[in-house]
Design a protein that fits this description.
Layout (H helix, E strand, L loop, with lengths): L2 E9 L5 H11 L3 E13 L2 E7 L2 H12 L6 E4 L5 H13 L5 E3 L17 H8 L5 E2 L3 H8 L6 H12 L5 E4 L8 E6 L4 E6 L10 H14 L4 H17 L21
Parallel strand pairs: 1-2, 1-4, 4-5, 5-6, 6-7
Antiparallel strand pairs: 2-3, 7-8, 8-9
Bound molecules: adenosine-5'-triphosphate and 4-amino-5-hydroxymethyl-2-methylpyrimidine.
Adenosine-5'-triphosphate binds next to strand 8, helix 7 and helix 8.
């Protein structure tokens, strides 16, 4: 059995965060485990409240897993503050964990803070160098590089700049671009573009969490990075194509193993 761990926040409405990650791991035929960093009160209209967990219990959750189970890949999502980041980095380093995917979650789509702004530097300095892949969206890439990004060449330039911060591979996601949904992978030497038609739906809650979890699941299965990103792109596209209305706001994408053929 292939085993994948997510270290992230809980989304009570089940569309993003830990819940999206575990659904993705299952749909891709892997065994999912979770370390919860924070609990959000959240629905399809947005996040109304966040409580981070004590770093001690976060450390204990991670240790409980690593002391007992061989983990094939780790996805890191919402980490909220500097002390949580310090704890996660320390344990991942101690256990020499490979196949780490860092999704630098900063704010929710509705604008709620999921990473304290003063913790951005620690996230970049401590977690990026441990990552096989980091997956910023356009806005996160702008925050990290300090440059406006609205074209494919600007995404490539941002991917190069971000790769200097220590991650082996960078995927700048173009879900918020105009036109096709194109993602740019940079491996420190060359670029690869992953194109898909934009699915016309308002229901995209959880796309970012799902995409990074799918990359982690494919890395865990032994895929090289390019193949893992291609697999994740195909998976996210199917999940968005099957998105559905839920509640009164932005509905979730659908994790359904039968539409995934591999
Ligand atoms: N409407 C769409 N049609 C097809 N692909 C999409 C669409 N929206 C996003 N994607 C794809 O989904 C993945 C996640 O990208 P996105 O830029 O939405 O991430 P994100 O902003 O981190 O997500 P979130 O909105 O959950 O925070 C990427 O592969 C992107 O190309
Ligand atoms: C818990 C959580 N993590 C990440 C995101 C970003 O989509 C979210 N909305 N909620």
């Amino acid at each position: 059995m292939i085993k994948v761990l997510t270290i992230a926040g809980s989304d009570s409405s089940g569309g993003a965060g830990i819940q999206a990650d575990l659904k993705t791991f299952s749909a891709l035929g892997t065994y999912g485990m979770s370390v919860i960093t924070a609990v959000t009160a959240q629905n399809t209209r947005g996040v109304s409240s966040v409580r981070e967990l004590d770093p001690e219990i976060i450390r204990e959750q991670i240790s409980a897993i690593f002391e007992d189970i061989q983990v094939d890949a780790v996805k890191i999502g919402m980490v909220f503050n500097t002390t949580i980041i310090d704890s996660i980095a320390e344990i991942l380093l101690k256990h020499r964990i490979k196949n780490i995917v860092v999704d630098p979650v900063m704010v929710s789509t509705s604008g709620y803070t999921l990473l304290q702004p003063q913790a951005r530097e620690a996230l970049i300095r401590e977690l990026f160098p441990l990552a096989e892949v980091v997956t910023p969206n356009l806005w996160e890439a702008e925050v990290i590089t300090g440059e406006k990004i609205s074209t494919l060449p600007a995404m490539e330039k941002a991917a190069m700049t971000i790769s200097l911060l220590g991650s082996k591979n960078v995927v700048v996601k173009g879900g918020h671009l105009e036109g096709d949904a194109v993602d740019v992978l940079y491996n420190g030497k060359s670029f690869r573009h992953f194109f898909s038609d934009r699915v016309s739906t308002p229901h995209t809650h959880g796309t970012g969490c799902t995409f990074s979890s799918a990359i982690a699941a494919f890395l865990a299965k032994g895929c090289p990075v390019e193949e893992a990103v291609a697999g994740a792109k195909e998976y996210i596209n199917g999940a968005i194509a099957h998105a559905f209305p839920l509640g009164q706001g932005v509905g979730p994408i659908h994790h359904f193993y039968q539409f995934y053929k591999a």
